[in-house]
Design brief:
By secondary structure, the protein is an alpha/beta fold. It is 52% helix and 7% strand. The protein has two domains: 168 residues, no CATH class; 126 residues, no CATH class. The chain has a four-stranded mixed β-sheet with strand order 1-2-4-3. The termini are far apart. It comes from Nocardiopsis mangrovi.
Amino acid sequence: MTINVLDTYSAMGRILRAPAADRAALLGAMLEPLRGMYRYAPGEIDPVDMHRQSFGFPLDRDEERCLDALETLAAAGAWERMQRALDDALAVLTEATPGLEVPDTTVAVVLGDPGDALFMRPALGLSGFGGISGYILITLWPFPENVDRVEATAVHELHHNLRWGPGGVVWDPMTVTVGDHVIGEGLADAFARELHGEERGYARIGVPHLHDDEVFTKVVSGLGVTGMENFTAWVLGDALAERFGGTAVGLPTGAGYAVGNRLVDTYLEATGQTAAQALRADSSEIIATALGRAG
């Protein structure tokens, strides 16, 4: 099994320096190795369209700003650091879970859109997706805090990748709950903290709400909600949910991450496990243990 962090540095440099009319085709070539990430989506998905509809860097403006950001990431050794961190994290996970089935995994780091106010402020310049086995996509803007957390961000997504990977926890769209998603985020953060420290390991969007009991109570009230279209507000918060067509539920950005960390930390303390050992732990057991201990 191999983890391959793609050389998106060179590819993005070519895209940003190319004539505007050629950029979409070049972006498509860069993203082609990630096409399998959309294998469960209905219909044919164009990765370039997904890039445009999410937080990906623009193809028609801000070229110099993006090129400067690209060089900031390169100077920080972001791609090399991410590769080392993922290889080391995989060793920890395979030791903790004997017989763990790990597919070849493709990882891409892509610049975000500096002109997207939602991405740059509430989302703090970072979006990660590692829920589809064999693929990890990290979209970021190189704020110093994000550059400092490159390793932690990568291993957070790897934990997702293997929790919901072959032989792991089944993500059934018909039965999956907000609780399953929240616990997944809490476990991934706990794993990142185990490997890279408390300061770097927390997903930044959840940190402001870690000790907010009102947010905790609200998210806990929604742990049984089903329907993936409803998850965004409960996990990421209202602002991000509204961007993607969801319905607000009265939660701040990152609420589900904060609550997931609290629930998972209580569970790990109660059981004496690490987040690596709890890779495949059932979310309902984690919730029941954590809430029972809290009560």
